[in-house]
Design goal:
The protein is mainly alpha-helical. It has one domain. The protein is 92% helix and 0% strand. Helix 1 packs antiparallel against helix 2.
Length: 203
């Protein structure tokens, strides 16, 4: 009778240890799956960040092209304006000459000098306006590139976090498996000792 009761006790203890081990293994699987899910989510977020960075780089390239275009348009407009001023001075000289006025002296020369001076000021204004426009685009391009760099750093950090989460999940699964095996082996060992009347203190 005592043997039967002991056998039943051993069976129940073994069953309990097995149930506990199964629970540990399931918990380990859940930890691994959670880690992998976090890694997958992090990878998706990193890809979005990298896509945004690429868009910012594209926009920066466009801004740089606009800066170059502004500089080119400014130079062309300045050249056209200077040509117009020369044409105006030529017309003034022709007009004065047609009236019998000496074009290089007196009032006629003063009028041409004023036209030349004002024309130069306007031409320089065109140049400066183009330079300011180009500078604005260049600043915009630089800001966009900095934004792209920040996005890429964020993507790298996000991806690293996902890798860490996956590694932590796998480590937790490994620990759970070790714990399960240890639990079963430990219970089996102690049951055998108890079955034959030995205790851990006996030698």
């Amino acid at each position: 009778m005592v043997g039967t009761m002991m056998a039943i006790g051993l069976s129940l203890a073994a069953a309990g240890a097995t149930t506990s081990a199964v629970g540990q293994v399931k918990a380990g699987h859940a930890a691994r799956d959670a880690g992998l899910a976090q890694q997958k989510q992090a990878e998706a977020q990193a890809q979005v960040q990298e896509s945004e960075a690429a868009q910012l780089d594209y926009n920066a390239n466009v801004a740089e092209l606009q800066a170059a275009d502004a500089t080119k348009r400014g130079a062309e407009e300045e050249q056209r304006f200077r040509t117009q001023v020369k044409g105006l001075i030529g017309s003034q000289r022709a007009g004065f000459g047609g009236q019998g006025v000496k074009v290089d002296n007196g009032s006629a020369a003063d009028v041409q000098a004023d036209t030349r001076y004002l024309g130069e000021q306007d031409a320089l204004t065109i140049r400066h306006n183009a330079a300011r426009e180009a500078w604005g685009y260049q600043v915009q391009a630089e800001d966009l590139r900095q934004g792209a760099a920040i996005k890429r750093k964020g993507a790298a950090a996000t991806r690293e976090g996902g890798t860490y989460a996956a590694a932590a999940g796998r480590a937790a699964q490994t620990q759970a498996r070790i714990g399960a095996v240890t639990s079963v082996l430990g219970t089996g060992s102690s049951l055998v000792l108890d079955r034959y009347g030995w205790s851990r203190g006996n030698k």
